[in-house]
C-alpha cells in the first residue's frame, strides 16, 4: 500500500493540471476578480471630458443604473471593443458613461472623433488616481453600477458580443428585476 | 534543403524511436538477442535523423528562409548570425527540437559507454530512452511543427525576443536541457532495474556518474539563467522564485538528493527503493517543468506562448510516463529493507537527513508554485505566491543541511566516531564564531551578513579539516580520489554560495536617482559621475548609451556604459552596465530622460553596489565542478570493465532460464 | 480581417514585451534613507496587478507606476506598511500580496511543508531505528562487501 502512495500523489497532481488546463480555457489569466463587487462604488469627482470646468460626482449619477466603461486612446484593445459598444450600447437599457483613463484630453477627443462616440456622458481621469479606487489596472474595464451606486458586475478586457449576451445583459436584467418591486 | 526534409527526418526518427523502444523490451522479456540488438543501431539512426532535422532548421535560419513560419517569427535580416543560431531554440517549437536533440546526445553517449553492461540491462535502458523520445517526437510532429510554411513568404521576419539576444541566454537553454534530459538516464537505469527485478545494486554504480554529470549540467544551466537575469533584466536580482525558475530548481533539489542517496545505495546497499523513487522523481520533475513552461497553466514572465492543446498532450505523456513508472515502482520495488545496518551516529543518518530536507524543500517549492492553481480549484480567488514565501521557508529547511554538512565526511559508514565529531564541532564552531564577531564590526550589525560570514567559515573549515585529515592519514596518491575531491569542491561551493547570498542581500545598496550630466552620486563608497548620454548603434538596434565614470577616493575605477536599446521591431530593452569584481559588483541601469525627448539633459538612473554577489554564481560553479569531478572517478570506470565477466555470466544465466 | 487581427496581436505582444523588459527606474524624493529602504522593501513584496509575474518595484506598467506613486504618497502621510497593504488589497484583492495572508484557504500553503517535514521525519526516524537495531554493525570495510560487490573500493578506505 505504501508503495502506491507516490502513484496516488501523482494522480492528484494530474487532476490538478487537467483542471488548470480547463480553467484557463474558461478564464482570462490576466483578469483579477474585483473585491469591490456588490460593494458601493468609490466616491469620485471628475471633470467632464468635453467641459473640463464641470465635474461629475458619484452622487450626480445616483438614481439610475449605468455602465462605466474605462477606455483610453493608447489602449489597443479598446479599439476592438469600441464597435461592440457602438452596436450594443443603445440596446443595453442603461446609461453608458465613458471613463477616459490616463489620457491626454486632446488624444481622447481625436480618438472619439475617429471611432465614434457611443457614450451618454464622458468623464476624464488623466492622473489616474480615482481609477485606483475603482481597482482599475488597465483598459478596457467595465463596471455595471446600479441606481443605489453599488457595483453589480465587472468585466476586465474588451466587451465582446459574446460577453455582452452571456454576462452583461443578464446582469442588467437581474438588476432591473430587483429594482422592480 | 527544403524544410519538408526536416519534417520527414523527424517522422523517420519517430519510427526508429518506436523500434528502439519496443523491440529491445520484447527482446529482453523473451530473451531474444536479435531483438535486443536492435537497440543500439536504432538509437544511432534516430540521432542521425534528429541532428539532420536540427541542422535543417539552423540552416533555414542562417539562410533567412522566411518561408518557414518559425524562422519568420524569430529572426530578421539584421539579426547577427550567432543570434540566428541561438534563435533555433528561441521559442517553443525549436527549443523542443533542442530538447530532443539533447535526448539523443545522451542516448548516443549511453550507447557508446554501455558496451560493458549486461546486454539485457543495457537494451532495457536504451529502450526506455527510446520511449521518452517517442513521446517528444510525437509531441513536436503533431502539435509543434517547427518546419511549418508561411506562404506567401514575407520579405523580412519579425525578431528574436530581444531578451534572448544575450550571450548568457544563448547558453542557458542548452545547459539546462543537458541537465533536465540527463536525468532521463538515471530514470532509464532505475526503470530497467525495476523491469529486471533481480534486486541487484550494480545498476546504481553504473548510474552514478550519469546522475552526477546531469546534475552538474543542470547546475550550470541554472547558474547561467540566474546570471543572465541579473545582467539582462536590469533589476539587479538573481533569483525571483518565478514558476519557470522553480521548474528548474525542483529537479535540481531532487537530483541533489538522488546523488547522495545513490552513494548510500551503491556503497551500503540500503535505501534501494528510495533511490529508485528519487530517480523517477528527478526526471518526472524535469518533465513537469516542461509542462509548466509550455502549457500556460501558470503565469510567468518567461513562459512560452501557450496553447491548451500542447498542455493536454504533455499532460497525457506525463501521465503515461510518470504514472506508468510509479505503478511499476509500486509493483516491483524491493520490498525488504536490504543493505547493511547502521547506528544512529553514522554517515547514513546524516545523508538521510539531508535527503529528507532536499525532498521536503522540493515539495515546498512544488506546493508554492502550484498553489495559485490550487487556489483557483478551491475557489480562493487569485492567489500570488512569491519571494516572501519561498525566501522564508527555504532557508529554514536548508539550515539543518548547512549545520550538518561539515560532519558528513568525518562520519564513517555504519558507525561514526563521536570524539572526532566533537573535535570538528569545536574547531569549526570556534572559527565560525570568531570570524562572526570580527565581521560584526565591519558589517554594521547586519545579522544576515554576520550569518553569511559564519556559515562560510563553518563550511569551509569543515571541508578543510577533512582535507587535512586525509593529507595526514592517507599515503600519497590515494588521498583524494576524484569522487571525494568532487564532494569537497561541491561542499566548498555551498559555503561560497551561502556567503554570497547572505552578504549581497544584506549589504547591497540600491538607489534610483535623477542625474544631470556632470553630477555625482556617492554609493557604497564609490562616486558615480554621470557624463551624459549619446546615441549608439549595433547590428540590429540603436541605443541611448549613458556614460558613467566611477571613482573611489579620486582614483578611477571604471567607465560604464548602460544602454537603453530599441530593436528593429520597436522592442525596448535595457542593457545594464556591470563592473564585476570578486568582492563587489557595480551596476548601472539607464532609465529615462527626465525631460522626454531631450537625451542630453538629466536622466533617471539606477545605481547598485552589490558586494559578494559574484560568490553566488561562483559557489554554483564550484558545485557544478564538483559534480563533474565526481563523475570522473576511476572507480566507476574500472568497475565497469571488471563487470564484463559478471555480465557475461549473468547473460548465461539468463539464457539458461530462457 | 484575420490578417489585421494578427498584426494587431503582434503589436500588442511587442508592446507588452517592450514594457516588460525596460525596468522601472524612478527617482523619488524620499524623506530619508530609511524611508527609501522601506519603500524598496515594500514594493518588492507586492505584485503588479497587470503584469505576468512582476513586483511593483520592477514593473514598468503604467498601473505599477501609479501604485508606486500612491504608496510613496501614503508613506509621506505616515501610513504604515500594513495600512498600505490593506489599501491595495481593498482595491485589487489579495492577488497583490506575494506573501498570502494566513487564512483557512491558505492554511495548506503555509503548513503543508511542515506536515510533509513531520511525516517524512517520522519515516526517517523509523528507518534509522529499525536499521540500528538489526544486529551488530560491521566496522571494517573489508568484511562487508558480499552484498554489494566482490571487490573492495580502490582506495582501500571505504569512505
From TrEMBL, chain A:
Residue intervals of the Thioredoxin domain: 35-173
SUPFAM superfamilies recorded: Thioredoxin-like
Topology of this chain in the membrane: Single-pass membrane protein
Protein name: Thiol:disulfide interchange protein
Keyword Ribonucleoprotein: no
Family in the record: Belongs to the thioredoxin family. DsbE subfamily.
Coiled coil: none
Organism (species): Rhodanobacter panaciterrae
From TrEMBL, chain B:
Signal sequence segment: none
InterPro entries registered for this protein in UniProt: CcmF_C, Cyt_c_assembly, Cyt_c_biogenesis, Cyt_c_biogenesis_CcmF
Role this protein plays: Required for the biogenesis of c-type cytochromes. Possible subunit of a heme lyase.
TM helices/strands, residue ranges: 43-62, 96-113, 125-144, 177-197, 209-229, 249-266, 273-292, 312-331, 352-374, 389-412, 424-443, 449-468, 480-503, 612-631
Organism: Rhodanobacter panaciterrae
Record carries keyword Cell membrane: yes
Keywords, ordered alphabetically: Cell inner membrane, Cell membrane, Cytochrome c-type biogenesis, Membrane, Transmembrane, Transmembrane helix
Superkingdom, natural source: Bacteria
Similarity section: Belongs to the CcmF/CycK/Ccl1/NrfE/CcsA family.
Protein name: C-type cytochrome biogenesis protein CcmF
Domain Cytochrome c-type biogenesis protein CcmF C-terminal, first and last residues per copy: 315-634
Cell compartments where the protein resides: Cell inner membrane
Annotated Cytochrome c assembly protein domain residues: 89-295
Membrane-related topology note: Multi-pass membrane protein
Automatic annotation (TrEMBL), chain C:
Transmembrane segments: 107-128
A Pfam family annotated for this UniProt entry: CcmH
Top-rank taxon, per record: Bacteria
InterPro entries, sorted: C-type_cytochrome_biogenesis, CcmH/CycL/Ccl2/NrfF_N, CcmH/CycL/NrfF/Ccl2_sf
Regions annotated as coiled coil: none
Keyword Transmembrane helix: yes
Domain CcmH/CycL/Ccl2/NrfF N-terminal intervals: 11-143
Signal peptide: 1-22
The entry's keywords: Cytochrome c-type biogenesis, Heme, Iron, Membrane, Metal-binding, Signal, Transmembrane, Transmembrane helix
Task of the protein: Possible subunit of a heme lyase.
Family: Belongs to the CcmH/CycL/Ccl2/NrfF family.
PANTHER family per record: CYTOCHROME C-TYPE BIOGENESIS PROTEIN CCMH
Name recorded for this polypeptide: Cytochrome c-type biogenesis protein
Organism per entry: Rhodanobacter panaciterrae
Recorded name of the encoding gene: cycL
Amino acid at each position: 500500500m505504501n508503495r502506491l502512495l507516490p502513484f496516488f500523489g501523482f494522480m492528484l497532481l494530474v487532476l490538478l493540471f487537467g483542471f488548470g488546463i480547463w480553467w484557463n480555457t474558461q478564464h482570462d489569466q490576466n483578469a483579477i476578480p474585483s473585491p469591490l463587487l456588490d460593494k458601493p462604488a468609490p466616491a469620485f469627482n471628475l471633470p467632464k471630458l468635453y467641459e473640463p470646468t464641470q465635474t461629475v460626482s458619484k452622487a450626480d449619477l445616483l438614481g439610475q443604473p449605468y455602465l462605466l466603461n474605462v477606455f483610453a486612446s493608447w489602449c489597443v484593445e479598446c479599439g476592438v471593443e469600441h464597435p461592440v459598444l457602438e452596436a450594443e450600447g443603445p440596446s443595453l437599457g442603461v446609461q453608458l458613461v465613458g471613463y477616459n483613463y490616463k489620457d491626454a484630453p486632446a488624444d481622447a477627443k481625436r480618438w472619439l472623433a475617429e471611432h465614434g462616440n457611443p457614450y451618454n456622458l464622458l468623464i476624464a481621469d488623466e492622473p489616474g488616481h480615482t481609477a485606483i479606487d475603482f481597482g482599475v489596472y488597465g483598459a478596457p474595464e467595465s463596471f455595471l453600477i446600479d441606481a443605489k451606486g453599488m457595483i453589480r458586475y465587472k468585466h476586465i478586457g474588451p466587451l465582446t458580443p459574446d460577453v455582452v449576451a452571456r454576462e452583461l445583459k443578464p446582469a442588467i436584467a437581474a438588476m432591473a428585476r430587483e429594482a422592480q418591486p | 534543403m527544403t524544410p519538408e526534409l526536416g519534417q520527414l527526418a523527424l517522422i523517420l526518427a519517430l519510427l526508429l524511436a518506436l523500434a528502439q523502444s519496443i523491440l529491445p523490451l520484447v527482446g529482453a522479456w523473451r530473451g531474444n538477442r536479435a531483438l535486443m540488438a536492435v537497440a543500439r543501431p536504432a538509437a544511432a539512426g534516430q540521432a542521425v535523423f534528429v541532428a539532420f532535422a536540427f541542422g535543417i532548421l539552423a540552416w533555414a535560419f542562417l539562410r533567412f528562409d522566411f518561408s518557414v513560419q518559425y524562422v519568420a517569427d524569430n529572426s530578421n535580416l539584421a539579426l547577427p548570425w550567432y543570434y540566428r543560431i541561438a534563435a533555433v531554440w528561441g521559442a517553443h517549437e525549436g527549443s523542443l527540437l533542442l530538447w530532443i536533440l539533447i535526448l539523443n546526445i545522451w542516448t548516443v553517449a549511453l550507447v557508446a559507454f554501455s558496451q560493458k553492461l549486461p546486454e539485457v540491462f543495457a537494451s532495457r535502458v536504451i529502450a526506455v530512452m527510446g520511449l521518452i523520445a517517442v513521446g517528444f517526437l510525437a509531441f513536436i510532429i503533431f502539435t509543434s511543427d517547427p518546419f511549418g510554411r508561411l506562404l506567401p513568404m514575407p520579405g523580412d521576419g519579425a525578431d528574436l525576443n530581444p531578451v534572448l539576444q544575450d550571450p548568457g541566454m544563448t547558453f542557458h537553454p542548452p545547459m539546462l536541457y543537458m541537465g533536465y534530459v540527463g536525468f532521463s538516464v538515471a530514470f532509464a537505469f532505475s526503470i530497467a532495474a525495476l523491469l529486471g527485478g533481480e534486486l541487484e545494486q550494480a545498476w546504481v554504480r553504473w548510474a552514478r556518474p550519469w546522475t552526477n554529470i546531469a546534475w552538474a549540467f543542470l547546475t550550470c544551466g541554472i547558474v547561467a539563467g540566474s546570471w543572465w537575469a541579473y545582467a539582462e533584466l536590469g533589476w539587479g536580482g538573481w533569483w525571483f522564485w518565478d514558476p519557470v525558475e522553480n521548474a528548474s530548481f525542483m529537479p535540481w533539489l531532487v537530483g541533489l538528493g538522488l546523488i547522495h542517496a545513490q552513494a548510500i545505495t551503491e556503497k551500503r546497499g540500503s535505501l534501494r527503493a528510495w533511490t529508485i523513487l528519487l530517480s523517477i522523481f528527478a526526471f518526472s520533475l524535469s518533465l513537469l517543468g516542461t509542462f509548466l513552461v509550455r502549457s500556460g497553466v501558470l503565469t510567468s514572465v518567461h513562459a512560452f506562448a501557450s496553447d491548451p492543446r500542447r498542455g493536454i498532450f504533455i499532460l497525457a505523456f506525463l501521465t503515461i510516463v510518470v504514472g506508468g513508472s510509479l505503478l511499476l515502482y509500486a509493483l516491483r520495488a524491493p520490498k525488504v529493507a536490504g543493505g547493511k545496518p547502521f547506528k544512529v551516529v553514522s554517515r547514513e543518518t546524516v545523508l538521510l537527513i539531508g535527503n529528507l530536507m532536499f525532498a521536503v524543500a522540493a515539495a515546498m517549492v512544488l506546493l508554492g508554485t502550484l498553489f495559485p492553481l490550487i487556489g483557483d480549484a478551491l475557489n480562493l480567488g487569485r492567489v500570488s505566491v512569491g519571494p516572501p514565501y519561498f525566501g522564508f521557508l527555504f532557508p529554514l529547511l536548508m539550515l539543518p543541511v548547512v549545520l550538518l554538512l561539515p560532519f558528513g565526511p568525518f562520519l564513517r559508514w555504519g558507525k561514526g566516531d563521536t570524539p572526532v565529531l566533537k573535535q570538528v564541532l569545536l574547531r569549526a564552531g570556534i572559527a565560525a564564531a570568531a570570524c562572526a564577531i570580527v565581521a560584526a564590526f565591519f558589517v554594521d550589525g547586519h545579522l544576515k551578513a554576520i550569518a553569511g560570514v559564519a556559515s562560510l567559515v563553518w563550511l569551509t573549515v569543515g571541508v578543510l579539516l577533512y582535507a587535512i585529515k586525509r593529507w595526514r592519514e592517507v599515503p600519497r596518491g590515494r588521498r583524494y580520489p576524484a569522487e571525494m575531491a568532487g564532494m569537497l569542491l561541491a561542499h566548498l561551493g555551498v559555503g561560497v554560495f551561502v556567503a554570497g547570498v547572505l552578504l549581497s542581500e544584506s549589504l547591497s545598496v540600491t538607489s534610483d536617482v535623477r542625474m544631470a550630466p556632470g553630477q555625482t552620486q556617492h554609493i557604497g563608497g564609490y562616486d558615480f559621475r554621470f557624463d551624459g548620454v549619446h546615441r549608439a548603434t549595433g547590428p540590429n538596434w540603436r541605443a541611448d548609451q549613458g556614460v558613467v565614470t566611477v571613482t573611489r577616493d579620486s582614483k578611477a575605477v571604471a567607465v560604464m556604459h548602460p544602454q537603453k536599446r530599441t530593436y528593429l521591431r520597436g522592442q525596448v530593452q535595457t542593457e545594464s552596465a556591470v563592473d564585476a569584481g570578486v568582492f563587489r559588483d557595480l551596476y548601472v541601469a539607464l532609465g529615462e530622460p527626465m525631460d522626454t525627448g531631450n537625451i542630453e539633459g538629466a536622466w533617471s538612473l539606477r545605481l547598485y553596489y552589490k558586494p559578494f554577489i559574484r560568490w553566488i554564481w561562483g559557489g554554483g560553479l564550484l558545485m557544478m565542478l564538483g559534480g563533474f569531478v565526481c563523475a570522473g572517478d576511476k572507480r566507476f570506470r574500472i568497475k565497469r570493465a571488471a563487470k564484463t565477466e559478471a555480465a557475461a555470466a549473468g547473460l548465461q544465466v539468463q539464457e539458461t532460464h530462457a | 480581417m484575420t490578417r489585421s487581427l494578427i498584426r494587431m496581436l503582434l503589436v500588442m505582444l511587442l508592446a507588452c514585451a517592450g514594457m516588460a523588459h525596460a525596468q522601472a527606474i524612478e527617482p523619488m524624493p524620499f524623506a530619508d534613507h530609511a524611508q527609501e529602504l522601506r519603500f524598496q522593501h515594500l514594493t518588492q513584496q507586492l505584485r503588479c496587478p497587470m503584469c505576468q509575474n512582476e513586483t511593483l518595484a520592477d514593473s514598468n506598467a503604467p498601473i505599477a507606476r501609479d501604485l508606486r506613486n500612491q504608496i510613496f504618497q501614503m508613506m509621506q502621510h505616515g501610513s504604515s506598511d500594513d495600512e498600505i497593504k490593506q489599501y491595495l488589497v481593498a482595491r485589487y484583492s489579495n492577488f497583490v500580496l506575494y506573501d498570502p495572508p494566513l487564512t483557512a484557504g491558505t492554511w495548506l500553503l503555509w503548513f503543508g511543508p511542515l506536515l510533509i517535514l513531520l511525516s517524512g521525519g517520522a519515516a526517517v526516524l523509523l528507518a534509522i531505528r529499525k536499521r540500528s537495531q538489526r544486529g551488530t554493525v560491521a566496522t571494517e570495510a573489508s568484511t562487508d562487501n558480499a552484498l554489494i560487490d566482490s571487490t573492495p573500493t580502490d582506495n582501500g578506505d571505504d569512505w
